[in-house]
Structures are given as C-alpha cells and as structure tokens.
Specification:
Layout: H1 2-29, H2 44-79, H3 91-105, H4 111-133, H5 143-165, H6 169-176, H7 192-203, H8 205-211, H9 215-220, H10 225-246, H11 253-265, H12 269-294, H13 302-324
Helix pairs in contact: 1-2, 1-12, 2-7, 2-10, 2-11, 2-12, 3-4, 3-5, 3-10, 4-10, 5-6, 7-10, 7-12, 11-12, 11-13, 12-13
Amino acid sequence: MTDTRTAKTRMTKLAACATFVVLAVLSICIGAGEFSLARLLGDPQALNLFLVSRLPRTMAAILTGAALSIAGLIMQALVRNRFVEPATAGTAQSAALGILIMTLVFPAASLAIKTLAASLLALLGTSLFLMTAHRLPPTQPYLVPLFGLVYGGVIGAVVTFVGWQTELLQFIDIWTNGEFSGVVRGRYELLWGTAVMVAIAWWVADRLTVLSLGRDVSIGLGLSYQRTLQLGLVIVSVISALTVVIVGIIPFVGLVVPNLVSRVLGDNLRGTIPWVALSGATLVLACDVLGRLLRYPYEIPVATVMGVVGALLFLRLMFLRTAHA
C-alpha cells in the first residue's frame, strides 16, 4: 500500500513538472505579435520581442504564482486556519491602501518607495488581522475567513472612498485588477524580491511547521514564537506588496494551492514549499494562457480568469472536505 502511494505521488510530481514546462513554453509563444522559438537565433526582432516582452511576462507569472501560493501557505500556518490567504485577510487591500497614500502624498515616488510603503501598510493590516483572529474561538474555524472577508472589505471600501474623493477610481481599478499585459523588461524586476522571500520561507520552513502547532506547543518545543511570527508576517507582507504594486490583486491562488498540495504531500512545510511554489506558478500560468486564448488577440485579465477557476477549485475542496468529514 505504501509503495503504491509513493509511486502515485511520484507520478503526480512528474506530471506537475511536465505541465509547468508546457505552460511556460505556451506563455512565451502566445501573443498578438508573430513569434516562434525557432526564429530566436536568426531574427533580431524575434529575439528582441522575446527579451523585452515574452520572457518578462512569463517570469512575472511564474514568480507571482509561486510567491502568492507561499504567502497563503504561511498565512494559514500563522492563523492555523486553511481558509485564509492574503487577499481574504486584508493584506492585499492594505498594500493597495499604502500605494494609494503614496500616490496622493508623494506622486513622484519611485516604484521601490511605493513598494516599501505598501509593505509597511500590509504588515500593519496583517498584524491587526492576526491579533483579532487569535481571539476568535478555535472551535469555529469558519469565523476566521468570514472575519477576514469583512476586514478586507472594509479596507477595500476605504480605498474606494478615497479614490472616489480624489478622482482616482479608474487608476485604482487598473492597478488592483491583476493582469500581466503591461509587464515588460524594466517593469517586473522587483518581483525577484518575492523569490528571495520564498527562499527565506524555505529556510525557516521547520520553524513555521512548529509554529502551526500553536503558541503553547511551539514554546514548549523551544521555538521563539514571537520572532517566528514576526518573520512570517514580514514574508507575507512583502510578497503581497510586491505583487500588488507590479501585477495587482489575484484572488484564490494562496487559498486553493496550499490545500491541494497538502492533500497529496501532507503538512510538513519543508517538503511542501517547493511543490506549493511550482503548483502556484503552474496555476497562474494556466489562467494567464487561458485569458489570452479565450478572446485572442484580445486578453481577459488573469485575475478575472483566476476568480472563476479559483472559485471552482475552492468549491471542489469544500465538497471533498464534507465527503471526508
């Protein structure tokens, strides 16, 4: 029985890797402009299109999907609840509020400065969410995501109200609705910071696994609970801020991917983080490719496609949970 399950897990991993490679190649090849990989060596225009647009967009989708999945995994470990992610816990909305404040107060600020402000607001918003979530009764797990939805909705309403008062509603809608059409060389490089955050998460994966067992157990096992909690908050906040600044808000990635991977590989973060990152990147790539093909040569924003696909996956998870309960 154990050998059969191991073989099935191995086949699942190989299928995930193959799917990722295929989608990455499709993402590079699909677009309004004529392009093929065979022309890269002999055609300067094709090489320029590849380096300026196609490769940056594909890398942005990979980095965004991987980072958001890891942020959701860490958020679920911090809150000890599988039904939360940065987009449903006020983190992404707080980052958006930080960008809006910087746009109003320092409109000439660089992208890096706006990212720093967004990270600080995201850290503050997530900290407030955690403080309240830990006070909710653990016997009612659905209260945490419900509170997160209300909390994020309130912050989002503040962003909308300020945008309406300052005539920036169209601007807010553009940079909060996640999509990759504007990603080119020179505009996505800050997303490599999310790769650094993912590497740090993998480095402290064992501590995060212990943290997910609860405060008392963590302290009993010798873990510095407060420092690990703070580090997890920083990772989630920086990832959320970077993705909101560069790409926008993409829902459901951090919610469904960690749950799907944990059903196959378990809850040991040391072993699951690489596969959560790969699965998240694959899912976002798939939604981006689908958004480009549905109305070719026009595009549907990846956040819209992900909203539909993610909702279906989430309902699937809920029905599976009910079936196994």
